[in-house]
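Subject: complex prediction, re-run

Hi both,

The earlier run crashed halfway through, so I resubmitted it with identical inputs.
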Amino acid sequence: MEVFKNLTRTRVRYGETDKMGIAYYGRYLDWFETGRTEFCRALGKSFCEWENEGIMLPVVEAHCRYKSSLLYDDEIEIETTVTNLSNVSVIFTCKIFNLRTGKLAAEGYTKHAFTSTDGKLLRKGNKLLDWLNSNNVQ
Amino acid sequence: MEVFKNLTRTRVRYGETDKMGIAYYGRYLDWFETGRTEFCRALGKSFCEWENEGIMLPVVEAHCRYKSSLLYDDEIEIETTVTNLSNVSVIFTCKIFNLRTGKLAAEGYTKHAFTSTDGKLLRKGNKLLDWLNSNNVQ
Amino acid sequence: MEVFKNLTRTRVRYGETDKMGIAYYGRYLDWFETGRTEFCRALGKSFCEWENEGIMLPVVEAHCRYKSSLLYDDEIEIETTVTNLSNVSVIFTCKIFNLRTGKLAAEGYTKHAFTSTDGKLLRKGNKLLDWLNSNNVQ
Amino acid sequence: MEVFKNLTRTRVRYGETDKMGIAYYGRYLDWFETGRTEFCRALGKSFCEWENEGIMLPVVEAHCRYKSSLLYDDEIEIETTVTNLSNVSVIFTCKIFNLRTGKLAAEGYTKHAFTSTDGKLLRKGNKLLDWLNSNNVQ
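This time it finished cleanly. Structure:
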């Protein structure tokens, strides 16, 4: 069975480019976030609702490899999967494709801890983890 | 007597430029924010502390005129004054100077409501207002 | 005859919120930009193409009134019109609606000069101006 | 002999926080950039000048581990070193310290290719590389 993956599209904004004329490297992490947000929505419950129920996902690690440049107004497709799920953390893996060129623009991942609203690590599992598991995300 | 004004300096970051090679117009509002933050600190109490005491300053209006371009790494000086203070709102006025060229880069203002932490308008005055008044900021 | 207006949708990103829990005031200018970009595309020629033909639209003035807060993941609709068109400048007017609440979140405008790639003001009209005029945008 | 390292300070801006009340994870990459910029300036020639001489440093890889949260207005110190220098690429390593708490807030690195202004990889060395080497940066 194939794992669940989410595809979502957006465009490179003018303000996301820099003086080199290409998308600034820091902005890709914002797109990774969009990917995670849409991943949860597509699975049936928005990340926003999870936060309202008291489960936070602060980022503990982020990594990105930049493969080919993105220009202003390029339409991109963000592909998001969960590649690692443990009692205390989850890794979302992202690929960003440039739909103008068909090329892979970047790939990377973010690792998140499960915490309560006041930042305490949830060590014994939690409802968001159960939900991801029950949806066979990996 | 001259009104209190604050001067603070920073540099244009790479990620704040856009494909035109100049600072992106939206980033000036971040610098206005830096100006307000340093204005309060210079007056003796950080804006952070005011928030911790339960007074928020959400922006209700922002305006900016762009006079001359800023390049990556240009050092800028942000000049901040209070130009209007009422029971329910305050206006911070900002000028941004390009220290490389000596030119005025932009000028504008932000208008803020005084609210409680839960967003309720403070209609009858508040301690932050009193403090600004007692410091003759306008 | 009604003037041309463009509607486009996006969502408030996590990174666009601030510690007040609402969308940061500076990010609205990025959404105004998205509105302008989609306005041109909807009219038949992307702003990107106009830039490639040597016409730039640097912002000379920006204004925004904030009417109601936007939360993370709120879907917004950006309504863009041209409200003033002269030989040397154009004003884009924007309204941002919160589709969750139905409320107007913000309204404002940006004024732009027509310039060449090297920043020279185009004083005698230009093809982008002609195109906007021929499309009865105001 | 100890390698050259640069220390530079800035503060967490309001717009760099998110609804969790802490600095957004994507903004750390902007601070890494500030670190690199000040590293070059401290060594005697601004990165801006290198770009003007035709050498660009596009990012090909970025990595960050988040160790402890940063709050609005926290003063941070960015420590930058060069940890790997080859004919075609350079790695800048960054640590971000929270001067309020004394804690390490994050550490990571960015890997950059040496390219010409038109994006061609400079395979046989270049003046920026020679300059870094001559300054014993690693």
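Chain A touches chain C through 17 residues (CB under 8 Å).

- K.
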